[in-house]
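Quick one: structure tokens for this chain, please?
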Amino acid sequence: MAISAPTAVRLNWNKAADADGFDIYMLTDGKWIRQERLTGSSVAYAKTGLASGTGYKFAIRAYKVIGTTTVYSNYAYADAATK
């Protein structure tokens, strides 16, 4: 789910049971750029400093660290727009 404000969007999701955290990506100039790596039980992300009245695309994926290997879930995608 995405919640919008004039220059920010907030993404919310359900915690994946076995996840160690989540990677948040935003589509920028045709490329998916990681914005942040959230650890623990985070279930929300706010992106600020955006242009007003503009649409944005985000991707979120859970990760789990097993020894020295990181295992990733499939991506979940969200469209969001500032007001």
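The two ends are 15 Å apart (CA to CA).
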